[in-house]
Amino acid sequence: MLVNAEADVLVVAERNDDFIRQFGVAGGMDAYPFHVDGPSNEADYATVIASRAVLLDGSTVVYSGAMRIARAVVQCGSAELSIVAVHLRAVTEPGGFRAWRTELRELTAYLTTVAPPFAVVGDFNSSQFRPALARLLRDAGLMDAHRTTGKGLTRSLKLAAHGALAWFPAFTRVDHALLSPGVHAVDVVNLPTAGSDHYPFLATLAVQQPVA
Questions:
Q1: For the segment 60-70, what is each residue's pLDDT rounded down to a tens digit?
Q2: What is the pTM of this model?
Q3: CA distance 56 to 60
Q4: Contact 115, 90 (CB under 8 A)
Q5: Tens digit of pLDDT for each residue in 59-118?
Q6: Cβ(142)–Cβ(160) under 8 Å?
Q7: What are 40's strand-pairing partners?
Q8: CA dist 194 to 19, 44, 187, 197, Å?
Q9: CB neighbour list of residue 179: distance below 8 Å, 6 or more residues apart
Q10: Full strand arrangement of the beta sheet holding 47-51
Q11: How far is 115 from 81, CA to CA, in rounded Å?
Q12: Phi-psi region for residue 133, left (φ > 0), alpha (ψ -120 to 50) or beta?
């Protein structure tokens, strides 16, 4: 499904070895030969960025306090676009809310070092309505791609991936693409869950070109 979406760049917020294997079997490694892989001993929080385009300097895994951040830099016309992939701590875990707030502060600080244009994509384990996430958008000057395309109330997280609870519809959006100045959302659409409790989404972005 992800391979057939024909995106230029894929961000996977819960990377595990089985996913990497299945992705390769589906032809993903051939279609997306360039990667920034942030493996973790906690698979639920590992991220990977896969790209059709050659990755530029600055593409790496960054450790900022407790945060593990994957960053890929790709050429978009005359501009260099940074894709920052994150997966913040689930607030439902023991001590999760405190860890989530700490990671959000660390992410805010890290983004001050990233020159626009950039997009921050991943599982934020929060809706856009939580005040701390709203402050990140305000302080970093970011716009939520779903909100700017009129889809801010769409939802991405289900109660379960399998079983009876999987029949219930998604109840909130925790997966976001947050855009810096110079990046504009043209459209965002949800894709099928394909065995996950999250709906992936495909964002079409326009990147402002530098003035000659």
A1: 998 877 778 99
A2: 0.91
A3: 10
A4: no
A5: 999 887 777 899 999 999 999 999 999 999 888 888 889 999 999 999 999 999 999 999
A6: no
A7: none
A8: 12, 17, 21, 9
A9: 117, 118, 119, 120, 142, 143, 144, 145, 148, 185, 205
A10: 9-12, 47-51, 34-38
A11: 9
A12: alpha
| Mean pLDDT, the chain, whole residue set | 87
Burial letters for 2-41: b for 16+ Cβ neighbours within 10 Å, e otherwise?
bbeeebebbbbbbbbeebbeebeeeebeebbebbbebeee
Contact 204, 186 (CB under 8 A): yes
- Tokens describing residue 113: 């070092």
HEC readout, the chain:
CCCCCCCCEEEECCCCHHHHHHHHHCCHHHHCCEEEEECCCCHHHCEEEEECCCCCCCCEEEEECCEEEEEEEEEECCEEEEEEEEECCCCCCCCHHHHHHHHHHHHHHHHCCCCCCEEEEEECCCCCCCHHHHHHHHHHCCEEHHHHCCCCCCCCECCCCCCHHHHCCCCECCEEEEECCCEEEEEEEECCCCCCCECCEEEEEEECCCCC
What is the sign, positive or negative, of the torsion defined by CA atoms of 156, 179, 5, 11? negative
pLDDT tens sequence across 162-184: 676 567 667 788 999 999 999 99
Residue 46: both structure tokens together: 């590992």
